Every structure is written in C-alpha cells, then in structure tokens.
Amino acid sequence: MEDPILEGPLPASLKAFGLNCSLKPGSEPSSTEALMQQLFQELAGHDVEGEIVRAADHDIRPGVSNDEGTGDAWPELLKKILVADILVIGSPIWLGQPSSIAKRVLERMDAFIGDKDARGRMPSYGKVAICAIVGNEDGAHHSAAEILSALLEVGFTVPSGGPTYWVGEAMGSKEYNDFKTPPDVVAKWNAMLASNTVHLARLLKAANYPGIKGGR
C-alpha cells in the first residue's frame, strides 16, 4: 500500500497507545472510553495497532520524574508511550477542565524535558498526540487546549484538528455511551482526525526532527 502524498511504500506499521483518564475504574462504563474506542477503530482502518489503558486502574504517583519509587505504576505506562507512534489522551470534563488524572499524566511527562539526546530532542520527538474529550458541560475546547498545549511542550506533535469531542446538554443526564452509534458529526470527524494523525505519524517516522548539534 502507498500513501497518496508520500512517494513509495509506507513506513513500518504504526502503534497507538491511549490513556483513558476517566475518574472511573475499568469495571465501570465510561463515555470517554466509548469515544476513544471509536477513534481507535478509525485508526485501525489505517493499519494502526492500538491499546487503551484506564489510568484510574494504575497507581500513578504524583511527581515530575520517570519513576517515583516503589509502587509507582508510571514506569510501565511510560514504556508503552515510548514504543507508540501515536499517543491519545482521553478525558472527561469536570468543572470545565480535564480530569485530575489527565493532569497527573501530563505532569509525569514533564520529565521528558530533562531526557534530551545529544541533539536536544526529547524522547517524544517524532511522536504524534491527540485527545478525546467528553462531558455534559461546557469546557471541551478548554480541556483540549490544556492537554494539547502540554503535550506540545513536552515534545509531541499535534496534527490538524487535534481533539475529538462530544458535549451533552448542560446539566443534562445523557451520557455519550448511551448512543448506540456515534453522532454523524463525531463519526465524520473521528475519521478525518484519524487520517490526519496517521499521515503525520508516517511522515515523522520516515524523517524525525533533526534537532541541533549540541542541543542539550
């Protein structure tokens, strides 16, 4: 298979890793999970292998290092981030903001700033990041802005249209996972975002940022 923009064969197959930052553990239904699963289905249509992990099921310790000591679950999650080409952060909206778990995940990736190679590149260079936001209140754009701005700062690249989101009626009771199929506008955007994401990930995998000599 060839990309219509890239000349010649595609780079090696891509991997996506998603962190669902719902406050609910994996045993409970999650609207964030529902939207992320739909997005991952679109990525799979581009031959992207994907995995979603519920962050609330793991003891992610507070801090800004790669390892906060005994019992910290972050080092194992970090391995999955570093082998993936695409990172997807999913978050519900609480008080108009991303969840506290999403913020903790972003804080832990602050360690990338100190992990630069000889050309000043963080381990996240060449990796693409997007986010999925769900809520029953205003704050989708604000939450996406917080998440994507942080990911840019710690070295990820964001494609055109970085978030996918759904927001229900203010103070309403309808949940996103109540839908048997995604709303048409969400389904169409998931497809476009997946296409943009995979295209950018392939470009970067074929030719990562060069950095600068003595970049440390």
Account of the protein in words:
This protein is α/β, with parallel strands linked by helices. β3 (86-94) and β4 (97-98) form a beta hairpin. It has one domain (14-206): Rossmann fold, CATH 3.40.50.360. α1 (31-44) crosses α5 (184-206). The chain is 32% helix and 18% strand. It contains five helices and six strands. Strands 1, 2, 3, 4, 5 and 6 form a six-stranded mixed beta sheet that branches. The protein has helices at residues 31-44, 74-83, 100-108, 140-153, 184-206, and strands spanning 14-20, 48-54, 86-94, 97-98, 128-135, 163-167.
List strands and helices in order, with pairings.
Blueprint: E1 14-20, H1 31-44, E2 48-54, H2 74-83, E3 86-94, E4 97-98, H3 100-108, E5 128-135, H4 140-153, E6 163-167, H5 184-206
Parallel strand pairs: 1-2, 1-3, 3-5, 5-6
Antiparallel strand pairs: 3-4
Helix pairs in contact: 1-5
Please give a handful of descriptors for the protein shown.
single chain, six-stranded mixed sheet, alpha/beta, 216 residues, Rossmann fold
Task: Provide a quick synopsis of the model.
It contains five helices and six strands, in the order βαβαββαβαβα. With 216 residues, the protein is of the alpha/beta class. Strands 1, 2, 3, 4, 5 and 6 form a six-stranded mixed beta sheet that branches.
